[in-house]
Each structure stands twice: as C-alpha cells, then as structure tokens.
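#struct-queue
[09:14] JT: dropping the first one here, sequence first, then the structure tokens:
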Amino acid sequence: MSRRILILGLLSSTLALSGGGTAAAQPLAAPLIQADHLGAKVGAPVAAEPQVHTGFVLDPAGPYEVGVRTAGEAVVVTVAHRNGRRRGAATEYLARGVATPERLQAGFGKFGKISMRFRESRHRPWFGKKRRCHGAGRFVVRRGVFLGNFRFRGEDGYVTVHVHRAKGAISSLARKCRRPHRSGAHSSSVFEDPFSDLIAIDRDGLDSTVFAAFSYRGKLEYIAEREENRGRLAILRSAFVEARGELQLNEAATAGKFTPGSPFHGSGRYRAAPDGSTSWSGNLSVDFPGVPRFPLAGPGYETLLEAAF
C-alpha cells in the first residue's frame, strides 16, 4: 500500500506539468516536493498550503518557459519544456529569501538572482469565472507588474533570462470560499482496480533519483525525479510520459522492459533472481532541462515491483 501512495503522490505532482490547475494561481509546474517542507523538522506538523500565490511567467527565446513564484519562504524558478499534454520535463531551482506577495528576493548562486517588487494595476481585481463557491472555489487575482532585476542562466547556458519588468499577479482564495480542512480517508478507484507499478531508487548522499512506472485501467505512466541539494539551493528535476497500455512484464513478473519514449531515451530492464535479489539495468536516460541524457539505470538502483494478477 505504501508504494501505491508514493506513486500516486508522484502522479499528482506532475498534473500541473500537463496543464492542470489555475495558471494565475500557480504558474507552471508545482514542485515535486513543496518548498514549504524543505526545512521542516522530523515529527513537526507540516505547514498548510498557502492561501496566497504570487509570481509571473516568461517566454524567452528557445523551447523553454520560465516561471517565478513563491512557495512558503522560498522563491522558485521553474524552467519547463512541454511536448504536448502527455509528456514534458521541468527543472525547479528553490532558494530561501524574501518571498512575500509583493516582494521577491533571493540568490540562486551561480545561476543568478532576483530582486523585484509588485506594482498593482489600477484595474479592479479580477474574479474567477465561478461566482459561487463550488469545488475548488474562487480566486481573487491582483494583476500588475513586477519591477526590479531578475537574471538567470541555467547550466551551460541552456536558458538565459534577464528582465527588469514582468507582468504578473497575486492570487488568493476568496474569503467566503475558504473552508476548514476536513480530515479522513477518501476512497479511490485506483486502490480498487488492478494496479501494477515499478519503482527504481538511487541515493547518493543528500541527492536522489527515482524512476517510476505504473499502470491501471489501461493507462500507463512513466515518471522520473531528481533531487539535488546545493547548500542554500535545492534543484528538483522531473519528467513524465502518459500513454496507453500495461507494464511489459513476463507471466511470472520476474522480468520486464520499460521504454517510455521522449523525453526519455533507451530502455530499462528489470530482473528478479530466484534468491530474491533484483537488478535494474539498461541504457535508460532522460532529458531534464539543464541535464540531458541523465542516466536512470544501473547497479546502484534499488527496485520494487508490484504486479496485478
């Protein structure tokens, strides 16, 4: 069950990459690990999702989209490369600094820095399409411009941005739409349907890499994550592919081949030996923004497989 929960968490994190959500409320992809939780102590309560989001999106020359937003006490720069709604990749750079609705200030080490303030437009606040609170509720958005200095240069110059002005917004959930959080379990058809998944994990100190594949109801998902700790800077890389089909496993579920397709390259091979040991090999790699052909297979990976029958 714990493996299923992990996979579902990975999937929900990638939904924003595939076009879900309210753009004004959360530009580009949501981080795979929320910045609010990076400094949380073990056993301490997790901070609630903030009611206010602020930021802007830029479209520089090249195949990437660059977004800046707040997440707790961190300023997040997201560089996303989308290839349709069913596949894409993104790299997020998270740095602690001043992350208030009207001020963004943080240093991203050798990658750049930001120091900008928000100036609201004279137009009246814009309200979401829904006049009444149903489902996700209604956002109040203050539109305007961020003024100051933002410069950023990714690894080997794969993306470069230097602006002094950017159109953006501050969005918050309308007060009458705010409802107290209700705890309790919610049923999910995913847990009731035949479900197969494979997880391959490699840890190197504070850095880690995850490749995951799972299928249910004829849907097939591939996800890759890479987390890097650079002192005061965290880098989170992700990629995903959605397709139709089932995991390619043999009848005994002791071997399988995984070939996701772009932005992935090559294949990963899973094998389970009679003594219970497993191996994850092949030439599988992925193009993360800033790190092309990142390897996703090898002897350092631990693997877990759950096959539906």
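[09:21] JT: and here's the second one, same format:
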Amino acid sequence: MTTTSDDELWSAIADPSRRRLLDLLVGGDATPSRLAANVPFTRQAVSKHLAVLEEAGLVESRREGREVRYRVCPARLDEATRAMADVARGWDRRLLAIKRLAEAAHERATDA
C-alpha cells in the first residue's frame, strides 16, 4: 500500500460508523436504504460513509436499475487486515521493550 492509500484506509476505518457498515456489508451486498435500516444514523449519513469507504477501496458500488448496491472488496479488506496486523506487531514489540525497561528499573530499585 502507498502512503496515500494507507492514510485513506486508516481514515476510513477509524470511524466506528464506517466499521459498522463494513460489518453489515460482509454479510452481503446492500443498498444505502437497507443499511440505514440497521444503523442509528440517516440514509444520507450512510451514503457519505459509503463514499469514504469506496474512496479507500474497501467497498465498491454498482448500479442496479434505480438502486446502487454496495459490497465489500475482499482483496482490499485483506490488505487492511494485514496492515492492521503489522501495526499490532509493531506495538507488541514496543510494549515488550517498555516492559523490559520497567522490570529492569524495578530490579535496580529493589537491589539498591
């Protein structure tokens, strides 16, 4: 992923409302109206969130008659999962280093 792509991804999934829409779309494609029936915000808000998710490549849309249907882009979602796992591994390493420093400081303090 590129930096711009990363920024769009993190921005898109940072919002709990967008994550909720992603959760709903994992179950299958849906229209903004159907999604709005399952969330505590308006259809207009759903459409705005879907636009952000689409810009980040997490969902794609297709016109079906008068309706627009959205679905998850599995490849991008997989990319997002890998990116989040990489971040988690980085934090695990940092936290382990902090823990070791704290333990060493505690050991020095009790030995003194």
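[09:30] RK: nice, looked through the second one.
[09:31] RK: The chain has a mean pLDDT of 91.
[09:31] JT: good to know. The helical segments are 3-14, 16-26, 32-36, 43-55, 74-111.
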